[in-house]
Amino acid sequence: MRVFLFSAVYLILGLNSYSQPIPRMRIEDRIRVHEAEFLYKKYGNQVWPGLTRVPFTLIVVYDSTEFLINCSKPGIDFRNVGYDSILNTQVYVRRARNPDNSMAVLPVVNGQNSIIAGVPENTGLSSTAWIIALLREHFLHYIYQDPDYVNDVTKLKLSKGDSLGMWISNYPFPYDNSSTVKEYSRFSKALHDALKNLDSDKFELFLQTYAKARNAFKKGLKAEEYKYFSFHVWQEGVARYIEFKFLETMEKYKPSYQIQQLPNYISYEDYKDQLFREELENLIAYKLPEQKRNCFYLIGFAEAAMLDYLNPDWKKLYLKNKFYLEKY
Length: 328
Hints:
Elements: H1 2-19, H2 27-47, E1 58-61, E2 65-69, E3 79-84, E4 89-95, E5 103-109, E6 112-118, H3 120-123, H4 127-144, H5 149-155, H6 167-170, H7 178-196, H8 203-219, H9 223-249, H10 257-260, H11 268-285, H12 288-291, H13 294-310
Parallel strand pairs: 1-6
Antiparallel strand pairs: 1-2, 2-4, 3-4, 5-6
């Protein structure tokens, strides 16, 4: 009798488990992800030599679940929900562990780095901006995969024993120091003017003004403070530039009908113009005491864009001589 009862219970539980619908990503998110991966493969090495060497591993986060794609070792906490014919890969699912507004790269899959992306409505991005943001995050994934990256960051000696990486956002940079604020304002304005006048006959004068303002800002910082600033310029700022560089490289690309029908779709050409205009405007609109390290991202974007004009081969030096764009 007891054997029969146990068998009946197991049968009921089994039927219930099979009756549960298999969780799936929404069709619009699958289309967005497929587009981002297609652009990465088609244009990645034109944008940045060797970029496509790093797999496009991605977790898409919903309110209660998250889906993992392009991962050969997902770990036991992920469940395989089958092959996806749009994404051309096996898809895995688990209960959401990451914030649903995430847009980052973290070692959250068996210690492996993965892009983590909340869906567009939770990240406040249009379909177009979300697709391009995945390409930016993939560039960060590319940086983190460099075998010397962790050791080189450690050598900066900025963590002060913080093993969790909180120093990246909590470092006591003198954002409110009146002299630092004044020199930063001059520096960012000079960079703005130089970038805006790349094709001007007076560009050399703008460049000299920018160089002097940058040097004055650097001299006003302690060596450790400048390392912190330069680290963000080098890493997060160049990642911002990667968004624009993809859009620039994709100039003749015609997206599919499915892409154009996505919610909040903006043409890639319009988004390129919008992105560059906003970055340039924010370069002088952002205030150091208010936007803090986000100001450094804008510096990196602008300096990387200017490096394309001054030294087209600068990308070859990026991982060989880390953290200081002025060395290129």
